[in-house]
Each structure stands twice: as C-alpha cells, then as structure tokens.
UniProtKB/TrEMBL annotation:
<dbReference type="Pfam" id="PF25399">
    <property type="entry name" value="DeaD_dimer"/>
</dbReference>
<keyword id="KW-0694">RNA-binding</keyword>
<keyword id="KW-0963">Cytoplasm</keyword>
<dbReference type="InterPro" id="IPR011545">
    <property type="entry name" value="DEAD/DEAH_box_helicase_dom"/>
</dbReference>
<dbReference type="GO" id="GO:0003724">
    <property type="term" value="F:RNA helicase activity"/>
</dbReference>
<feature type="domain" description="Helicase C-terminal">
    <location>
        <begin position="234"/>
        <end position="387"/>
    </location>
</feature>
<dbReference type="InterPro" id="IPR028618">
    <property type="entry name" value="DEAD_helicase_DeaD"/>
</dbReference>
<dbReference type="Pfam" id="PF03880">
    <property type="entry name" value="DbpA"/>
</dbReference>
<dbReference type="GO" id="GO:0005829">
    <property type="term" value="C:cytosol"/>
</dbReference>
<feature type="short sequence motif" description="Q motif">
    <location>
        <begin position="7"/>
        <end position="35"/>
    </location>
</feature>
<dbReference type="GO" id="GO:0070417">
    <property type="term" value="P:cellular response to cold"/>
</dbReference>
<dbReference type="InterPro" id="IPR001650">
    <property type="entry name" value="Helicase_C-like"/>
</dbReference>
<feature type="domain" description="Helicase ATP-binding">
    <location>
        <begin position="38"/>
        <end position="209"/>
    </location>
</feature>
<feature type="compositionally biased region" description="Basic and acidic residues">
    <location>
        <begin position="449"/>
        <end position="487"/>
    </location>
</feature>
<comment type="similarity">
    <text>Belongs to the DEAD box helicase family. DeaD/CsdA subfamily.</text>
</comment>
<keyword id="KW-0347">Helicase</keyword>
<dbReference type="InterPro" id="IPR044742">
    <property type="entry name" value="DEAD/DEAH_RhlB"/>
</dbReference>
Amino acid sequence: MSTPEVTSFTELALSAPVQKAVSIVGYEQPSPIQAATIPHLLNGDDLLGVAQTGTGKTAAFALPLLSRIDLKKNSPQVLVLAPTRELAIQVAEAFKTYASQMKGFHVLPIYGGQDMSGQLRQLKRGAHVVVGTPGRVMDHLRRGSLNLDGLTGLVLDEADEMLRMGFIDDVEWILEHTPPKRQVALFSATMPKPIRKVADRYLSDPKEVRIATDATTAPRIEQRYLIVNGFDRKLDAITRILEADDFDAMIIFVRTKTATAELAEKLEARGYSASALNGDMNQALRERTINRLKKKQLDIIVATDVAARGIDVERVSHVLNFDIPYDPEAYVHRIGRTGRAGREGKAILFVAPREKRLLHTIEKSTRQTILPMDLPSGSEVSNKRIQSFKELLTETLANQSLDFFHDILAGYSVEHDRSSEDIACALAYLIQKDKPLQVADAPQPKRRRETEKPNNRESEGRRTSERRPERTREKSPRTASKSDDLNMVKYRIEVGRNDDVKPGDIVGAISNEAGIDGGAIGHIKLHDEYSTVDLPAGMPKEILHHLRKVRICNLPTQIKLDNGDGASDSTGAKPSAKKRKPKADAKKTGAKASKGKGEVKAKKRKPA
C-alpha cells in the first residue's frame, strides 16, 4: 500500500490534547509508518502493519488510540501486548509522554518480575491503557483482576518476536478473552505463516500497511566483522578495540545468560565499567542497570538478545556481537541499539572461521556487505596509551601541589648523580608496568587456526576426534546450561546406533558444516535407526538445506523437524532401513563384481 502524502502531524485528525503533546515533544513530520497507519486507526479499522524496528511504530498506534480514549471511563480501553518487559516499559512511557496533556489519564505496565500486589492495587485504582507481557496479562485475567469488558483497542507489538519466544499460543488465548467488537492492530517486522494465521483469524477486514526499506539495517551504522575464535581470543580482541576505538557506550551481545556474567566480570577486571544484563536478573536490577548506562555511570552492558530487547539509550555508540546470532533478524535487532536519534553508530561482528556461512546468510538477508576489519595494531594501542598518559601528566601538573615530591627527587638527583629526566623515566616505568605503554602486535588468527587443520581429512570420525579437545575446553560453565539459555528446536536425522554413529560424530558434522559452535548444540538422543538433536531456533533455511546433504559415517542425515519418535516416511517404511539395504548388498558382491560389469555393458549395447 502506498504511503499517504502527509507532511505534518497537523494534517492528521488527532485530538487536540494529543496534537499539543506531539508539538511539545517536537515532532513535525510523521514517519512513513505513522503517516500510513494513523488515519486507519483513527477511523476504527483493524490494521496489519509490517515494518522494521526503529520506524516509529509506537507513535503510529499510540497517537490515534489515545485520541479515541474516553477519560470518563476509568477501566482499560486499550491493551498492548509486548514480548519483553523492557519493551512494555518503553511503550508505557511513550503513552505517558503522548498523553501529557490529557488530565487524569493513567497507563499501567504489567510484566513478570514485578511485585504482583503493586499491580493489583494499581489495576483496582483504574487505568485507561494497560501494556503488558503475555504471561502476566494471562495471570491477571485468570485472577479476575484485569477486566477487558470495556476494551476498544488491542495492539500486538512485535508479533514475530512473540512467536520466536514461544508466546503465540498465549497471545491467541488472550485474544479469545477480549470482546468481539474491538479494534486490533498487529505490528510485525516479518510475516511468517503463524502470524498470518493469527491475523486472518482475529482481525476483521484489516487494512494492510507495508513499509518497504532499502536495507534492513540503518545506513548510518558502520558494520564490520573480525575473524576470531575462542573466548579468550575474543576477550583480547575486545580489549584492543576498546583501547583503540573511541566509544561512548557499548552493548556486547552473547548467546547465553551465563556468558553475560563471565564476560562482564572479565572486562571489569581489565578496568572497564561493565555489567551483565540477562533474564535471570530481577526487574528492579535490570532497570537500574539500564538507568546507570543512561546516566553515564556504566559504559558497557553485556546482554542476551531477549534481555536487550527494547533498550533505547542514545549514547550507545557501539554494538559488538561477541557471538554471531543464528537468526539474521536477531542481528538486525542487535545493531539497531546503536545509531539512534540520527547519530552515527558502529557494529562489530566476531566470526569464527567455521561461522562464515552464517556471516554470508546475514549479508544476504540484510542486502548489505559487512566489511572485514583488522585488529588495532600494537602501535595504535601504544599511541592511545601514550596520549592518555600525557593527559594524566598535564592534569596532575595543573591541579596538584608537587613541592614535597620535588624536594625528594631533587635530593635523590644529588645523592645518586642522576638527571631529572632519568628519574622521571624510572617513575614512568613504575607507573605503567601493569599496563605497558609499548604494546606488541597481536598474533594473526590465521597462524593459530587449529580448527581448520582437520578439514583436509577424509574421515568424518577422525575430523571429529581431532576437534574434540577444543570443544571440551570451551564447554565451561558458561555453556553448561545451553538448553536453558538458548531457544532450541528438536530435529531428526536418519542415522542411528545401527550405523555405528556416536554423539561426537553428529556434533562434529553439524558444527563443521553449519558453522554452529559445538557448545550451542543441545541434547542428542540415539535410536537404533535414527537420532534426534536439539539445535538453536531460527536457523536460516539455507543452512538446513545444506545440512540435509551432509553425510555422517558416510550416510546422508536427511535432517528434518522431529514429529515424534518412530515417525516414518510417506511409504510407511523406516528411512534408515531403506538406505542400509544397498550397503548390505555391497558386502556380498566381492566375487561377482566382474560379472556385474559385464551385464551392465551388455545392457548398454543392446539398445544401441
């Protein structure tokens, strides 16, 4: 649908109080999603909006819905469902801002991890708009503390993210408990089949708005990648980047909750103001961490995708992907945390040698080339340290009384016949011993890429066994609870015990061919004729297609989603039984090989 020609908010039929609030905030021209959406929602139409994060979706639904609020009714008239607590808080704050000129207006965010008694008291007092996560909204509906009889508007914000996080059934349950005549607006960055089914079932003749983008990542974000492998090498690389690249604030993304705490501790030990942000932290602590970042009391946050959802901090100048995401959309959401409010941003992606396939998938999805980068050289880091050292000297000379030390060093110079310069150099050496001003160049990853050596081996089993020591080293506590940290999906592969397959063979084949770190491969269960393996959700179709061709113990995996133990193919036969039959026949025919060849030649000559 084409975007209406709207050049000013004054052209939209928003209520007078909302128009005044928009003017106070300083908005002048609506974004494309706002210009296309607001007229339909003001008209009372259901709406299906497809647009990327950062396009102004919140104002697109909040402004028209606020214009239709009846302040005399003190019961929920609008319900907004959001996938995360952070996003629920952000949306609630936006409603409060846009309703600043509406006297007596109340908005209430409700989410897990927050005191239930406080929410119950506020719901009893009344709220015109409720913004909540699906789980906590369901809790209140079951308790009877949230009454939706007077609901006139319902918004599903970031529906694809709610699907990815497993909330879609909860969303449908909530929709079934809303009045039949209510306006529904569904917003999603993509439109997978399950979301389309929800729209078809619960939206009434919706108007569809699609905002096309030239690229899924903002052009003002500089994107680069670095080939680096292993936790310790990545940590050293981060340290170099932090020292050589000027940054205001940074968000570092990792895959697991345990890795957030470990990496934050390592960075703090190296002198950086860093803190973890993950789903295991209570809400008060998470909010305090984000506020510290806003107030410049904290410079680095190490976060998981879910925990960082909805963070909007203008001073975030850098996003660093410590672990490459398996889902290209997750990459887009991650780097969207920088380059906010029209500022320039930088996004750095760490890629292990065997993860290059994931890098190419992200580039294909975002339609942008991510440029390679080199680690800052030793001389670059040295220059930065020397500059900081000189600035410290200048500040000390300008602000400190040094007479006492001058007398001591003058006496030392006479007693030992050493010049002032020699003494100053000795003192400088002592000061910088723990953080030397001279930094050597880092070894290039190519020279130490042990994981690539076995690629020339012919045997998959040998390749697996040679890689196992590295995988064992990396299975530290940060990857021990991988099933809890990652959203996993069960797949079936058509090789099993009867094929002499071991779990290590499966791990080796998948990690080598799909670029998935061994620590991120979940539970493996061997059956006689097939096996199941848990893999991270959201893997691109290209990788799954490639995995179907991968051979384990010289047999094709034929990987597919698991539909239950013992599932058979369309013929009713066990797939593994069919594929082993030719293998068994081959063992019988050592003496008949020449005869077989002769028969084939005869058959070829006959038609000629």
